[in-house]
Predict the structure of Binding-protein-dependent transport systems inner membrane component.
Amino acid sequence: MTRSEKRWNIIAHAVLIVFSILILFPIIWTIRTSFASDVIAYEIPPKLIFKPTIKNYMDIFVENNFLLYFRNSFIVSIVSTLISIPIASLAAYAFARYNVGGSKFRMLIIQTQMLPPVVLIIPLFVIFMKLGLTNTLTGLIISYLAFNLPFLIWTLIGFFESIPRSIEEAALIDGANRFVAFVRVVFPIAAPGIMAAAVFSFILCWNEFLFSLVLSGPGTATIPVRLAALQTSRGVLIGKLSAGVVIAILPIVILSQFIQKYLVRGLSFGAIK
C-alpha cells in the first residue's frame, strides 16, 4: 500500500468513526440516563461519572406495569408477522410468476402505503368499534396486518423474481404441483429475503404508535403508547422514559444479532437477477 493510499485509508476510517459516534451517541446517552437518579438526570451541566442505579428499571415494572405493555407489543408484533409473511409470500409469488393485474395493480399496492395513517384511523376506529374489536389485541393485529401487507408484498416480489423459473420447472417435471413446488423449492430458496421481510414487519409493528393509541385501551396498549404516557404534568420522567426505551430496543438488538447473516443476504437477495 502506497503512502497516498494509507493516508486516504486513515481519512476514510476517521470519517466512519466520527459518523458512528454521532449515530450511537443518542443511544449511549439514553442508556446513561436510564441508570441515573432523578437529580443527576436533570442536572445541568450533566455529569458523565456518577453512581448508577437501577431504580428507573424497577419503577417502570412495579409502578407502571411495563411488563404488561411489553407482552402486548410482543404478542401483537409476532402474531401479525407470522400471519402476514405467508399471505405476502403467496401474493408476491403470484405477481412475480403470473403478473396478476399487471404493472398497474403492482403500483396500486405500493400506492396504498402513500396514504398517511392518520387518514385511515378514524374510519378504522368506527369499523372496529361496531365489530367490538377496539381495546383488543385482535383488533391491533388485524390493523397492523392490513397496513403492513402491501409493503411486504412489494418487498417480496423482487425476491421471487430473482429465483430462476428453471428450478420450479424441474420440480414440476418431477411430479410436483405448483403449490408443492412453491413450498418445497421456492420458499426455502427465498428464505433470506422472507426473513428480512419478517424482520421489517416485526419492527414496523413493534414501533407503531398511532393505531395502538386509538384502538387500544389501558390493558391492551403497547410499549410506544406507554412510553408517551411518561410525559406527565410534572414534565417528562426522563429516567423512566430512558429505561423504557432501552428495554424497548432490546428485542430488536437481540433479534438482529441472531439473524444478521440472513438479514444481510436478504437485503441483497432481490437486488440482482
Observations:
- The chain has a mean pLDDT of 84.
